[in-house]
């Protein structure tokens, strides 16, 4: 049974804008297939297991220890706590022309779970869905030749859900919101800093012909936008 204790949703800039210009399917599928294969070949998902979570664990402990001390009495130290990312899964990638600029957005959705053993609390498993948004910018050099430059990269938490088959205890209910907020901040800030350089390298090594096809379609769309 999946009990959703809290749905963590960022409304601003998260969902794909309805006004976004669509890339021709044949071009989009070629790029997403190449990116997906590159992510898998580069063991992108295994990078998650190597990320240091000590800072996240310490943040959670700092924020919840005082409240737990009040509810259940004095607690032991961080040695009684554990956190790890597991079961990461890459979902279907998508591309679109940025509606507000002459660029391209790559959307990379991820699902993963976070196991957390926090002091005297029963172990918790939180399921996370997050989108990685990579923005590519169309640039031209002095000779008028175009290229795609790696722009902004960000992780946007779509949902954080707690799986529990039993009623939650009072201590868990008391600190769950704090845990979810800390996890959301970690995904947005720290996880992005760890994963985005790998994505930059992957995009930079895309097949030149695929990139040229994408540039050609972006240039055509940019002209259409300028004329409207």
UniProtKB/TrEMBL annotation:
The Lipid-binding serum glycoprotein N-terminal domain, residue ranges: 38-206
Listed Gene3D superfamilies: Bactericidal permeability-increasing protein, domain 1 (3.15.10.10)
Homology family: Belongs to the BPI/LBP/Plunc superfamily. Plunc family.
Localization per record: Secreted
Signal sequence range: 1-20
Keyword match Calcium: no
Classification via SUPFAM superfamilies: Bactericidal permeability-increasing protein, BPI (SSF55394)
UniProt keyword annotations, A-Z: Secreted, Signal
InterPro entries documented for this protein: Bactericidal_perm-incr_a/b_dom, BPI_fold-superfamily_member, Lipid-bd_serum_glycop_N
GO CC annotation: extracellular region
Organism superkingdom: Eukaryota
Protein name (database record): Latherin
Annotated Pfam families: LBP_BPI_CETP
Gene Ontology MF terms: lipid binding
PANTHER family for the chain: BPI FOLD-CONTAINING FAMILY A MEMBER 1 (PTHR47015), BPIFA4P PROTEIN-RELATED (PTHR47015:SF3)
Native source organism of the sequence: Equus caballus
């Amino acid at each position: 049974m999946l009990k959703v204790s809290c749905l963590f949703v960022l409304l601003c800039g998260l969902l794909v804008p309805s006004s976004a210009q669509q890339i021709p399917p044949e071009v989009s599928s070629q790029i997403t297939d190449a990116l997906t294969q590159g992510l898998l070949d580069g063991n992108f998902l295994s990078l998650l297991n190597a990320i240091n979570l000590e800072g996240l664990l310490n943040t959670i402990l700092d924020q919840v220890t005082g409240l737990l001390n009040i509810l259940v009495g004095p607690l032991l130290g961080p040695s009684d706590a554990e956190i790890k990312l597991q079961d990461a899964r890459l979902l279907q990638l998508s591309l679109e022309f940025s509606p507000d600029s002459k660029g391209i957005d790559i959307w990379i959705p991820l699902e993963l779970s976070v196991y957390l053993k926090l002091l005297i609390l029963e172990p918790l498993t939180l399921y996370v869905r997050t989108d990685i948004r990579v923005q590519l910018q169309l640039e031209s050099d002095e000779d008028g030749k175009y290229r795609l430059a790696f722009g902004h990269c960000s992780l946007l938490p779509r949902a954080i859900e707690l799986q529990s088959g039993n009623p939650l205890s009072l201590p868990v209910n008391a600190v769950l919101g704090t845990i979810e907020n800390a996890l959301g901040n970690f995904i947005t800030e720290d996880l992005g800093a760890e994963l985005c350089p790998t994505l930059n390298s992957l995009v930079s090594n895309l097949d030149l012909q695929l990139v040229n096809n994408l540039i050609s379609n972006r240039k055509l769309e940019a002209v259409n936008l300028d004329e409207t």
